[in-house]
Design goal:
Blueprint: E1 6-7, H1 17-22, H2 34-51, E2 56-61, H3 64-75, E3 81-86, H4 89-100, E4 104-109, H5 118-127, E5 132-136, E6 138-139, E7 144-145, H6 149-157, E8 161-165, E9 182-186, E10 197-202, H7 204-212, H8 239-255, H9 257-277, E11 294-298, H10 303-314, E12 316-317, E13 319-320, E14 329-333, H11 341-355
Parallel strand pairs: 1-12, 3-4, 3-5, 5-8, 8-9
Antiparallel strand pairs: 2-10, 6-7, 9-10, 11-14, 13-14
Helix pairs in contact: 2-8, 3-4, 5-6, 9-11, 10-11
């Protein structure tokens, strides 16, 4: 049989064997099987423990982008002013969802190598009446991790609802969920589960806005998921994906969050150190902005070629940049199951060989 490809992309990640095997279990009928309600409620409890929150949890059947759109269309009413903080591709992209919902995006975009100045955000909040604010915790395309503690506190004090894309950080590094009204995750990143599920925590304040906002969509609306009857969900859920997610969450909780976070930090430091030995520079430039879940190295004009040679000659799959940076950035995902020293060392050994 063909040797398995070593997938070191920043999501979807490699999936552990026990997680894959869970999907082969006979699927319950969520509408008829009396055991499903108990299973699903327990799953949400485990998810809340990984999120480290008491907020209500929601799991949607769809990739992480579904969560971003659902959060915006559920909380943003036509005419609402929304602060869109962007220092990356996904942060800037939130404004498109706001426009789709009929809101008025007020974009605060800065360089993709910089973090946000809390004082600048506070000044914007003082001058405007924002209904909500959107932001990205980890910008996967550039490996940048934002520190939002002060920004979230400012927004919370002003009564501004916060929508945070933490898809590529949840489960790999601490996320300030208690200061976030809608925190979005995805199964295929640090959880190392198959693509197909969006995970969301929703605060009481956010639910109040959801109920007060006219919903023009059903599938992308959060409203039907508020305090649901677990024996009759809004639509037939992706049961096999839920089985896989359960095992993924068990793996995280059994190891312990502190240990999981430390493992991600250690493998990230190893990846960056090996890169520096090869003369490579992590993209954000500033060490404190480098994410422990993904490293983006600057590779001027050669990223696609290097990616292809790693795949063809070494059986290793990594990612390049996105958009205008597609051929200038090489990304190595060390998140979830991939946050292992042996997998990072093998990847960097192969990269050294290609560069030589």
């Amino acid at each position: 049989m063909k040797e398995e490809l070593l997938t070191m992309t920043p999501g979807p990640t490699a999936i552990p064997e026990d997680v894959r095997n869970a999907m082969a279990k006979p699927a319950m009928n969520p509408d008829a099987d009396p055991e499903f309600a108990s299973f699903y409620e327990t799953l949400l409890d485990e998810l809340a423990r990984v999120y480290q929150t008491d907020d209500e949890m929601v799991v949607l059947g769809g990739e992480g982008i579904l969560g971003l759109e659902a959060a915006v269309v559920s909380l943003v009413a036509p005419g609402d002013d929304v602060l869109c903080l962007g220092n990356g591709l996904y942060g800037d992209g939130f404004s498109d969802f706001v426009e789709m919902a009929g809101g008025n995006p007020v974009s605060h975009s800065i360089e993709y190598t910089e973090g946000f100045d809390p004082n600048e955000v506070a000044s914007l909040v003082e001058k405007n009446e924002f209904a909500a604010a959107t932001m990205v915790h980890c910008e996967t395309p550039t490996g940048l991790l934002n520190d939002f503690n002060e920004v979230l506190a400012t927004l919370q004090d002003a009564g501004v609802l916060t929508i945070v894309d933490a898809v590529s950080s949840l489960g790999g590094t601490p996320v300030p969920v208690e200061g976030i009204d809608v925190c979005l995750g995805g199964s295929q990143k640090c959880f190392s589960s198959p693509p197909g599920l969006t995970t969301i925590s929703v605060s009481d304040s956010a639910w109040e806005k959801v109920e007060a906002t006219e919903q023009d969509s059903f599938y992308t609306s959060l409203e039907p998921w508020h305090e649901p009857d677990f024996s009759f969900l809004p639509y037939t859920h992706l049961v096999s994906n839920l089985y896989a997610l359960e095992v993924s969450l068990d793996r995280i909780l059994d190891e312990g969050l502190d240990s999981v976070f430390a493992r991600h930090e250690e493998t990230a430091e190893l990846c960056r150190a090996r890169g520096r030995e090869l003369g490579l520079k992590p993209f954000p430039g500033t060490e404190s902005l480098c994410s422990p879940t993904v490293t983006a190295f600057e590779i001027d004009g050669a990223a696609t070629e290097i990616q292809q040679r790693l795949h063809d000659d070494h059986g290793i799959l990594v990612a390049t940049g996105l958009g205008e940076m597609a051929d200038d950035i090489l990304r190595i995902g060390h998140m979830g199951y991939n946050a292992q020293e042996s997998r990072v060392e093998k990847t960097m050994d192969a990269l050294e060989s290609v560069l030589d």
